[in-house]
Amino acid sequence: MTARVVRPRDSERDQRRAAASLAAAGLGAGDRLLVSATASPALLAAVLGALRTGVVPVVLDPALPAAERAVLAGDAAPAMDVGSAPERLLGDEQADLADVPLARPMHYTSGTTGRRKGVWSGVLAEDDAGSLAREEIDLWEFVPDDRHLVLSPLHHSAPLRFAVHTLLAGGEVLLPGPFDAARAAEVITTQRPTTTFCVPTHLQRLLREQVDWSSFRRLVHAGAPCPAPLKRAVLAAAPAGSVWEFYGSTEAQFTVCSPEHWLAHPGSVGRARPGRRLTTDERGQLWCAVPRWARFEYWRAPEKTAAAWRGDQVTVGDLGRVDDDGTVWLDGRREDLVISGGVNVYPAEVEAVLDAHPAVAESAVFGVPDEEWGQRVVAAYVGTADPAELTRWARERLGAAKRPKSVHRLDDLPRTSTGKVRRLDLPEALGLTAD
């Protein structure tokens, strides 16, 4: 099976058609276009046709339940809603486009902690719009010879950003449909993509297939922590210099990590992207100074916006460390922090120890209420390790407060559609209560 190929010339024509339809409907710069469609050439044309005229696409998950979609649609207050049919915008007329997007799409955060928030950047000044596009294209060195493979849903910010900037740089985009490891392996082997964005779960599943990785020059992953054994396996399978990582969020992009940097600092997420600087506050929370074109606010939530910003520095609530040479290490989210007997336990630190066991593919650490300790540390894992053996492994390598008080083997860890583990779902899935 082959993937659909989106060619830049064809997409440019369809972007002009979408822009003409939006203008004919009275939409202008700053208006919002709601779309909730699966990946297609028409979706990319609608998004880029909107962005290159200053209309802001609000891109929703097409699988949202009707009630949840209605809530988000009401919050976004769009001037037009094309639902699952962006092809409706592809009429006979064509309109002029700016050279680069004049806005960023508005995405709603994944909602792993509390109510979803819309991330709004508004319409950018011409210089800022150019800087935003150049930053992304220059960072990943997108060129007209590129063939970018889409493995993640395009309603998420990173996969959409990679596809959009590939087209803007004159490259092609491959759309193989919903992720299936065997199908993706066939597309990689036969259609020879040069770049892709993925999450560690994709990599884990692709390594079980027969894949010819040799066409990749940039295999970029993010979205969730990548266990060190998995990272090393991908580095061994893919061409030298091709496996890159970044740390970012729906709101902003923070670091980039080359394969050389990761091998020198295993488990880190690299250093700050160009034009950025990361520091930590007294609570260990990461803050990033960003350029003007990377600023945003939370849509219709001024109090949340105010809490996220401190001058030109922004935080999304992640905890971490920054070494003297600028290397950044993530300790997790403040919401994931386990406080047991007054000791702060960072799940990422415990997970790194468990993931190093040769019979563990991946682990997730979380806290459950405990009358004596406030919270006790619990771990779930995927792999063939015996629970008693894994408990011994942890006891030999972790201080008493950080050792999981129980470990639970699962076939899979519950995840969001972006690949993040849903730690909040694990206590209920494992039948753990607040006793």
What is the CATH C level class of the largest domain, in words? Answer: Alpha Beta
Mean pLDDT: 94
CATH fold field value of the largest domain: Rossmann fold
Provide the CATH architecture of the largest domain: 3-Layer(aba) Sandwich
Strand content: 15-25%
Query: How many helical stretches?
Result: 13
Read across the widest sheet, the strand sequence of neighbours is 1-8-7-9-10-11-12-13
Shape: globular
Largest sheet: 8 strands, mixed
The number of domains = 2
Strand tally is: 25
Given the helix and strand composition, which structural class is it? Answer: alpha/beta
- Through-space gap between termini: 52 Å
- pLDDT < 50 stretches: none
CATH superfamily of the largest domain: ANL, N-terminal domain
**In angstroms, what is the radius of gyration?**
22 Å
- Helix proportion: 25-40%
Structure write-up:
By secondary structure, the chain is an alpha/beta fold. It folds into 2 domains: 4-330, Rossmann fold (3-Layer(aba) Sandwich); 337-429, ANL, C-terminal domain (GMP Synthetase, Chain A, domain 3, 2-Layer Sandwich), CATH 3.30.300. It has helices at residues 8-24, 41-51, 66-76, 126-140, 157-168, 181-191, 200-206, 228-237, 259-264, 302-308, 347-355, 387-397, 426-429, and strands at 4-6, 32-35, 56-59, 80-83, 107-108, 118-120, 147-150, 172-175, 195-198, 218-221, 243-248, 253-257, 271-272, 277-280, 286-289, 297-298, 309-310, 313-314, 318-322, 328-333, 338-340, 343-345, 360-370, 374-383, 406-409. Helix 2 (41-51) links the parallel strand 2 and strand 3. Helix 1 crosses helix 2.
